[in-house]
């Protein structure tokens, strides 16, 4: 199998696509390649729940809710950027759709046996667009005018019923530093009962620079491992690492209806967000701090000293967390769409909040920390969605 080269780790957020000639694998090969599901003992966890009743907000580049593997699982979301590529454009919702598939894909076809299956296939996805794809011509404009989109998006998600907030993004450039509005937004979400999960960063071969939002207090920061449980060379090593999850050779769905293999701590964070959705469905009364502690206490294959900066407390194990969670007294703290304020109001319904450019957060240039690089087409879908091809630009 062809894999993407290490040199691409320095590239910004996006997919790097290398389509193989017409030797597409059969659809059932997609499931056979989803080694991450077995690694997380999902079959055992699914005996209790598949995530029904849980909403996972995916703050990303948008999500294709018409994708066969996601149809019916994607709620009406919010665009905090307000411009950029649209459905049918190549640079639209690639990264976000991939993350949503890992979290809550349900497959398609007879018995849903084809396509991508997510960790929590009965959970709902709440898409919140806070960043544009690297190939989007409007990305430069977004970087200079919508720097507060992430903070706004976190608050909006918390105010609209998100039980889990997935942040498969971040800034791990040399100039990365905490942004007060984002830190406050994370604390706002946590106090409303939403568990916040973020990718630890892809800077393991580039100096292990701190990545935000992963480093904010209360966030579950996820590092990446391969199928053998070994830290991926690109995965950032820092004090904030909570747990690890699959992040190498991960099958991902794409709006173009093809399937690819990719890598990155983005994918690892999505796996953990799906795991948290299962835990929340099984134990809805547990608060974010209790769930974070559960993940740490039940992680498999912990480092020799119990924790290290490479893998946190070990490989996330939702099945074990569900079992142990039954012994934890619930706090009955749930996310809800109400107006109680902890750190000021959330964004308005129009999404017209702040446009700070002092620090542009995840819209900054050094987005290696959120890179999910897709290198191989695995299976080319026969039935492309309506309008997805006709509207694509020449040469795409």
TrEMBL record:
Broad class of the protein's primary localization: membrane
Domain of life of the organism encoding this protein: Bacteria
GO biological process, any: proteolysis
Localization of this protein: Cell membrane
Signal peptide (UniProt feature, chain positions): 1-27
Topology versus the membrane: Single-pass membrane protein
UniProt keywords, alphabetically: Cell membrane, Hydrolase, Membrane, Protease, Serine protease, Signal, Transmembrane, Transmembrane helix
GO cellular component: plasma membrane
Pfam families, per database record: Peptidase_S8
Keyword DNA damage among record annotations: no
Domain (Peptidase S8/S53): residue spans on this chain: 51-314
InterPro entries per the UniProt record, alphabetical: Peptidase_S8/S53_dom, Peptidase_S8/S53_dom_sf, Peptidase_S8_Asp-AS, Peptidase_S8_subtilisin-like, Peptidase_S8_subtilisin-rel, T7SS_pept_S8A_mycosin
Active site: 60, 95, 266
Protein family per UniProt: Belongs to the peptidase S8 family.
Protein's name according to its UniProt entry: Type VII secretion-associated serine protease mycosin
């Amino acid at each position: 199998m062809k894999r993407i080269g290490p040199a691409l780790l320095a590239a910004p957020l996006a997919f790097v696509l290398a389509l193989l000639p017409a030797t597409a694998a059969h659809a059932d090969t997609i499931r056979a390649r989803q080694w991450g599901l077995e690694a997380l003992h999902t079959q055992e966890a699914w005996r209790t729940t598949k995530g029904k009743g849980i909403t996972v907000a995916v703050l990303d580049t948008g999500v294709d809710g018409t994708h066969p593997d996601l149809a019916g699982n994607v709620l009406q979301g919010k665009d905090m950027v307000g411009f950029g590529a649209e459905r049918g454009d190549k640079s639209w919702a690639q990264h976000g759709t991939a993350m949503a598939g890992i979290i809550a894909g349900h497959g398609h076809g007879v018995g849903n046996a084809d396509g991508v299956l997510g960790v929590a296939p009965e959970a709902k996805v709440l898409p919140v667009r806070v960043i544009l794809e690297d190939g989007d011509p409007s990305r430069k404009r977004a970087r200079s005018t919508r720097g507060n989109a992430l903070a706004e998006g976190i608050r909006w998600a918390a105010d609209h019923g998100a039980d889990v907030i997935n942040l498969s993004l971040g800034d791990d450039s040399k100039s990365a530093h905490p942004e007060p509005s984002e830190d406050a937004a994370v604390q706002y979400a946590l106090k409303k009962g939403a568990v916040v999960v973020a990718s630890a960063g892809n800077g393991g071969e580039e100096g292990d620079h701190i990545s935000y939002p992963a480093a904010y207090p209360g966030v579950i920061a996820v590092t990446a491992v391969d199928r053998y449980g070994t830290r991926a060379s690109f995965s950032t090593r820092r004090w904030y690492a909570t747990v690890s999850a699959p992040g190498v050779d991960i099958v991902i769905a794409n709006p173009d209806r093809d399937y690819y293999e990719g890598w990155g701590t983005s994918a690892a964070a999505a796996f953990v967000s799906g795991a948290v959705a299962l835990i929340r469905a099984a134990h809805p009364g547990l608060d974010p701090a209790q769930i974070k502690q559960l993940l740490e206490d039940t992680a498999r294959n912990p480092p020799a000293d119990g924790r290290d900066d490479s893998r946190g407390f070990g490989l996330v194990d939702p099945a074990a967390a569900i079992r142990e969670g039954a012994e934890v007294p619930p706090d009955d703290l749930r996310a809800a769409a109400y107006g109680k304020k902890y750190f000021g109001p959330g964004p308005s319904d129009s999404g017209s909040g702040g446009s700070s450019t002092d620090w542009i957060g995840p819209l900054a240039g050094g987005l290696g920390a959120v890179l999910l690089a897709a290198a191989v087409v695995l299976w080319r879908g026969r039935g492309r969605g309506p309008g997805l091809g006709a509207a694509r630009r020449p040469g795409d």
